Amino acid sequence: MLVLLAFIIIFHITSAALLFIATIDNAWWVGEEFFADIWRVCVNNTNCTEIDDSIQEFSTVQAVQATMILSTILCCIAFLIFVLQLFRLKQGERFVLTSIIQLMSCLCVMIAASIYTDRREDIHKNNSRLYALTSDGSYGYSFILAWVAFAFTFISGLMYLILRKRK
Asked: Known InterPro entries for this protein (predicted)?
């Protein structure tokens, strides 16, 4: 039972780490001479421009930013509630609250990655001054980590739903 508990804790911490990296790191859209994410666009690794309300489609970028931050926060809260429930739940009860919060985190990261997937081309076309050199890029590792974090948080949420407290 201790091995299962250790696995669940490590799996949850890994999910949170993936969410932190995907949210913070600057590699959602990358190319030879540039990299862009949900916070800024950098050309030649030195010329970085923050994404602010002067760009078109800023509300779309804000939606991605907000849902990624919310997903990370919910994942951390779910871990804290799991630890509390380890000591508070009676034997045989399920970790339903932890599961619900973790699945909400899963939903948020899915929404963020889906919005970015759908609207990335429009954001880049409508802001050609900022994204002039980014047409030959591809999705970067932060974007991929966001989708991996979606899978991890989904699996974790299901594990908590199925899991019962034992001695």
From this structure: EMP-2 (IPR003933), PMP-22/EMP/MP20-like (IPR050579), PMP22/EMP/MP20/Claudin (IPR004031), PMP22_EMP_MP20 (IPR004032)
Q: Which element (helix H / strand E) includes 34?
A: strand 34-36
List all residues 6 or more positions away from 34 whose beta carbon is below 8 Å from its beta carbon: 41, 42, 43, 44, 133, 134, 137
At 111, which CATH number? 1.20.140.150
Contacts of 11 (CB under 8 A, 6+ apart): 152, 155, 156, 159
Neighbour-count burial for 35-63, b at 16+ CB within 10 Å, e otherwise:
bbbbbebbbeeeeeeebeeebebeebbeb
- Total domains in the chain come to 1
pLDDT in tens, 92-129: 788 889 999 999 999 999 999 999 999 888 888 888 77
